[in-house]
Design goal:
By secondary structure, the protein is of the alpha/beta class. Helices cover 37% and strands 21% of the residues. The protein has one domain: 3-Layer(bba) Sandwich (FAD/NAD(P)-binding domain), CATH 3.50.50.60. The chain has 13 helices and 17 strands. The strands form four sheets. A seven-stranded mixed beta sheet has the order 5-4-13-14-15-12-16, with helices on both faces. Bound molecules: flavin-adenine dinucleotide.
């Protein structure tokens, strides 16, 4: 199939699926997104997400210019730095982008998942079907892919793209050995509304970007602020429609550690907020009083425990008219904050390959193979990297190597500070 019109069925209207859809629309390729959510705002989308330069580039490639401008205008503040500190709130290293040298497009951003979905849906609503829960697929005698949904309906496409996230049903059917595994690490915490008390407790570095607290015990604490740009709502209104809003500033507060270190037996136990808070406070014994007090500010209704899962590399498979992107194939721990960015990168790469099919330069199967060969390399490198970061943060810290690493970070930090001061 080269130089022909073809139809793509995308299962899942999350980050990766909708980014792919936007990009296909730009190239004039026909597609339908099938999303299980009942409506665009029927499910809270989760906390704010960090978009890195590669994610920004992918979104820029996918979105028409006016939508890109809205995406930029609705981003949050406090995204240009990253700090590592001790549990006594002593800075180990703080990296900040030089605001004068930031690329206009390929830069770090923070965005509400609710706002991002709203932007990604704009202009393609005609090709997104909600309340469509994928069940299974089969190859037809004509070589197409027939897709079946829980409501008894079906659809046909030339290419099926699994963008249905970590619990992907498409993957379970297509690559049953590629299921992700639990790492044994869990995150407990939630969001803290930024009222007066919480504001007084925050480390100042959190206004530059996310913070990772590394104590000498086998835990780690992640904190990141969400505050939308003041004009975000004005820009979102340009998109019309009824959507949930995500305007109230908050702090994400998540303590990571091995399940058994928190004293829990199973990550699927439904635990009351107070039990989780107590486990958190126990793990934070001896920490800086401000951090302990912040643990008390986590919104009761938001307190949760989530198991950290990861995919594992699998041998290359033979490319076909079914392919996968994002968490459906390479879910990773959140310890590098890149899972979503890699999903966006997949979408950009797959759509540029499909544009070559559309223009007659490639066959559909060659395009899928080129995408998968490249994706497997960078995505599973990111999977390994994020797993390593998780293990370093939450493993038993070596009595000699950990203090040496802290010393190295402090030394580099001294140089960075000196450079920043010299540049003023
Ligand atoms: C705590 C945490 C923090 C994170 N922070 C970051 C970050 O800062 N930056 C970053 O880059 N990444 C981050 N990630 C990872 C990021 O959230 C994921 O990698 C990203 O959402 C993957 O996008 P996706 O499109 O592949 O899947 P998803 O965003 O999960 O989308 C999948 C979609 O498929 C739909 N779906 C599922 N099953 C079906 C079905 N049967 N039929 C139809 N539709 C279906 C779902 O409803 C959903 O809309 C974080 C992850 C966690 C857990």
């Amino acid at each position: 199939m080269t130089g022909q019109s073809f139809h793509v069925a995308i299962i899942g209207g999350g980050l990766g699926g909708l980014c792919l859809a936007q990009s296909l629309r730009k190239s004039g390729i026909r597609f339908t997104v099938f999303e299980r959510d009942v409506s665009p705002s029927s499910r809270p989308q989760g906390y704010r997400i960090h978009i890195d330069p590669q994610g920004s580039l992918a979104l820029h490639q996918a979105l028409p210019e006016p939508l890109w401008q809205i995406f930029v205008a609705t981003g949050g503040q406090f995204a240009q730095g990253f700090t590592v500190m001790t549990e006594q709130m002593r800075e180990l290293i703080s990296v900040r982008a030089d605001l004068r040298k930031i690329d206009r497009i390929a830069q770090h951003r923070s965005i509400s998942r609710i706002h991002l979905r709203r932007v990604l849906l704009a202009g393609i609503e005609d090709a997104v079907q909600f309340n469509k829960r994928f069940l299974r697929y089969e190859e037809t005698q004509q070589g197409k892919i027939a897709v079946f949904f829980e409501d008894g309906s079906s659809a046909e496409a030339d290419l099926l793209v699994a963008a249905d996230g970590i619990h992907s049903r498409v993957r379970r059917q297509y690559l049953p050995d590629a299921d992700p595994v639990e790492t044994g690490v869990v995150g407990i915490g939630g969001r803290i509304p930024l009222n007066g008390r919480a504001m007084q407790l925050l480390p100042r570095q959190v206004f530059d970007g996310p913070i990772m607290v590394l104590p000498s015990s086998p835990f780690s604490l992640f904190m990141a602020l969400w505050k939308p740009a003041p004009e975000a709502q004005e820009h979102l209104k340009l998109l019309g429609g009824e959507f949930a809003q995500d305007d109230e500033p908050y702090l994400i507060f998540s303590l990571g550690g091995k399940l058994e270190r928190f004293g829990f037996e199973s990550s699927s136990q439904a635990l009351p907020a107070e039990t989780l808070r107590q486990a958190m406070r126990m793990a934070m014994t001896g920490w800086h009083p401000n951090l302990c007090a912040l643990a008390d500010c986590v919104d009761e209704a938001e307190f949760g425990l989530f198991p950290v899962r990861t995919s594992r590399p699998i041998p290359a498979w033979k490319s076909s008219r079914v392919t996968l992107l994002g968490d459906a194939i390479h879910s990773m721990t959140p310890y590098r904050g890149i899972g979503g960015n890699i999903a966006l990168k997949d979408a950009a790469l797959l759509s540029s390959q499909l544009a070559e099919v559309q223009s007659g330069q490639k066959s559909l199967l060659d395009a899928v193979a080129a995408y998968e060969n490249s994706m497997r390399t960078y995505a599973f490198a990111a999977v390994a990297d994020s797993r390593k970061a998780m293990e370093m943060a939450n493993g038993a810290k070596h009595p000699v190597l950990f203090p040496a690493a802290k010393l190295a970070m402090r030394s580099i930090n001294g140089i960075l500070r000196w450079k920043r001061a010299a540049a003023l």
